[in-house]
Amino acid sequence: DSPVTLKILQNWVPRVSPYFDKEHYTYVGHQIVIQESIEHFGAVVWPGALALSQYLESNQEQFNLKDKKVLEIGAGTGLVSIVACILGAYVTATDLPEVLENLSYNISRNTQNMNMHKPEVRKLVWGEDLNEDFPVSTYHYDFLLATDVVYHHTALDPLLATMVYFCKPGTVLLWANKFRFSTDYEFLEKLCDIFNVTILAEFPESNVKLLKA
Q: Which GO terms describe its molecular function (predicted)?
């Protein structure tokens, strides 16, 4: 099937602030308030997160997250993990240590007092201590989620190794990314060498592709 061409819906109200911005989104009938920080790349909502959140909301029959085990790598502000929680998943949101405080705050404030599986926030450095922190014998995920994890940085090989580590038979990887650089396409080529990859949707105005592997 050819990928669907979509637009990222403007379902939030932008607020102008130089620091510690709060953005308001609506997904799956819930208002989600996200605190951002310009201190870290991971503390800003990037277009891939909006694209994947929108797609999960609109394609619940195709990707039913209810009672599924979901791991998000590079969770950033936590928007996608929050949407997955609202959709009924057992969610583990992971990122670098310096991002976890803001990530935990956003996930806690947006999922407390709601009838859903309590999400977990954990440290995950791509390619490091995977078998110690997430032993294969104990951890198996139905879905691995990643948004805008590929850009101009030096951790692309560890990122790919992390995706391979967590993708066991039966695991579906959903990866949304804004394609900016040749390195993004090189990463995609490496992914295609390992996984069966299809493009689910494209968001041309933001150069975001949503891929399933």
A: methyltransferase activity
The domain locations on the chain are: 4-212
> Which residue bears the tokens 């105005």?
205
pLDDT at residue 21, rounded to an integer: 61
CA nearest to 66, candidates 143, 9, 153? 143
Partners of residue 199 on adjacent β-strands: 211
Q: Mean of the per-residue pLDDT values for the chain?
A: 91
Report the distance separating Cα 105 and Cα 192, nearest Å.
35
pLDDT at 39 over 80: no
Q: What is the number of alpha carbons within 13 Å of residue 6 lying toward its C-beta?
A: 24
| Choice among 12-16, 44-48, 67-71, 94-98 with the minimum mean pLDDT | 12-16
Asked if 211 and 198 touch (Cβ cutoff 8 Å), the reply is: yes
Taking the model in full, what pTM does it have?
0.91
Domain spanning 4-212: CATH superfamily: Vaccinia Virus protein VP39 (3.40.50.150)
CA-wise closest residue to 187 among 159, 145, 146 = 159
Confidence of residue 18 (pLDDT cuts 50, 70, 90): very low
Q: What is the pLDDT of residues 116-142, one digit of tens each?
A: 899 999 999 999 999 999 999 999 999
Using DSSP, state whether 85 is helix, strand or coil: helix
Q: How far apart are CA 27 and CA 154, in angstroms?
A: 33
DSSP classification of residue 55 = H
The DSSP string of 115-166 is SSPPPEEEE--TTSSHHHHS-TTT---SEEEEES--SSSS-HHHHHHHHHHH
